[in-house]
Design a protein that fits this description.
Elements: H1 2-31, H2 47-59, E1 63-70, E2 76-79, E3 85-86, H3 92-104, E4 113-116, E5 137-140, H4 141-150, H5 154-163, H6 167-176, H7 188-196, H8 209-216, H9 219-231, E6 236-237, H10 239-250, H11 257-267, E7 286-293, E8 296-297, E9 300-301, E10 304-311, E11 317-326, H12 331-353
Antiparallel strand pairs: 1-2, 1-11, 3-6, 4-5, 7-10, 8-9, 10-11
Helix pairs in contact: 2-12, 3-6, 4-5
Length: 359
């Protein structure tokens, strides 16, 4: 009985100790300080750049969207940068990215040969048309891409697009890579015809046939089609989405390193728009860019653009997009706006990091 009593007393004591220990542990746990919440402060856009972009956008006589993004630091600013603006030939960039994505996936090779025939001809700017004889003209996908970007050749671009599977492949790339508010239509022939109020006919690719067909339409019909396109562009894109995509491209987040380097190099050889964004460069700075120029009705142009990546002598980069939806201002006024945006970025960079020494 004594032994049993002792064991019972011991059990009671141990149970009490366990209860005390559990209670103490609970109190200790309750007394532990809560880890502080880590708040990531978004990078601040430099005030000078923000205010200057706003002033330039507000002072322009036309509907313009402007966006600037620091590739390295991530801040972004703009003027009406979330609206959709007609891309026109800016959309050739997405075709080339889709083609290089197909290369990265092993679906095509850039040295694959393609033959262009008269049935591949488009309209407006197509220098390659002079090379396409009765037997066609054979070249590579790499050559089509280079001509589409650097000379904005519409026939090269449409042939490249069809060679990788058509417009649905380009749209799928935009969606899969989460590029944002960027539309892609069905290629140059379909787009330009619809803007004019026409349905594409291959006969329009010959001589002045397209212009004759467009001019034969009642002005009211042309204006209705033109205005509808401006208000809700079939190839519309937001400048904010474009500079985000360009930043990701530069950082190597969209294509393989080899494809990224190739595309940026091609864009650095762009011949069109020599006095758009490029006109604002200082010695030591470089630009990889793509222009876009839309149709004109009367004195109004729908789409006058330049987008690209500015790189400073110290290697820091900025994505820039200036997209004019609708304007009647002289070309020199539009180009001056683009020059000033680039000069503003350069000024801000030099205020922040210092000016590079140049001879």
């Amino acid at each position: 009985m004594t032994s049993l009593g002792n064991r019972c007393q011991l059990a009671v004591i141990l149970a009490g100790l366990a209860t005390v220990s559990a209670s103490a542990a609970t109190q200790v746990a309750q007394q532990q300080p809560t880890p502080p919440t880590v708040r990531h402060t978004p990078p601040q856009t430099p005030m000078y750049l923000r205010d200057r972009v706003t002033a330039l956008g507000r002072g322009f006589d036309g509907r313009v969207g402007i966006a600037v993004r620091s590739v390295n630091e991530g801040w972004q600013t703009g003027w009406k940068a979330d609206e959709l603006y007609p891309q026109q030939s800016v959309s050739k960039l997405w075709v080339s990215i889709a083609a290089l994505d197909a290369v990265d996936r092993g679906q095509v090779r850039l040295d694959d040969k393609v033959t262009l025939n008269r049935t591949d001809l488009t309209l407006f700017h197509q220098p390659i048309a002079a090379l396409i004889g009765g037997d066609g003209y054979t070249t590579s996908l790499a050559d089509l891409m280079f001509k589409a970007i650097t000379t904005s050749d519409n026939t090269c671009n449409d042939k490249l697009m069809r060679s990788i599977g058509g417009p649905s492949v380009v749209r799928a790339m935009i969606a899969d890579k989460h590029l944002g508010a960027i539309r892609f239509y069905d290629g140059e022939r379909a787009l330009q015809s619809k803007i004019a109020g026409l349905i594409w006919s291959q006969s329009y690719s010959v001589g002045n046939s397209f212009y004759a067909a467009r001019n034969a339409l009642p002005l009211s019909m042309r204006k209705s089609s033109f205005d509808r396109y401006v208000e809700d562009p079939y190839d519309g894109a937001a400048p904010s989405a474009i500079v985000s995509a360009l930043s990701r491209l530069k950082r190597g987040e969209i294509l393989s390193p080899a494809s990224t380097a190739r595309l940026l190099s091609i864009m650095s050889h762009t011949k069109t728009g020599a006095n758009r964004l490029k006109g604002g460069l200082k010695p030591g700075w470089s630009l990889s860019h793509k222009t876009g120029t839309g149709q004109v009705l009367g004195s109004v142009q729908a789409g006058y653009n330049d987008i690209g990546i500015l790189t400073a002598p110290d290697g820091r980069s900025y994505a820039v997009a200036v997209m004019i939806k609708r304007t009647s201002t002289p070309l020199i006024t539009r180009m001056t706006l683009m020059n000033e945006i680039v000069r503003t970025v350069i000024n801000q960079h030099e205020m922040t990091y210092g000016a590079a020494y140049t001879l």
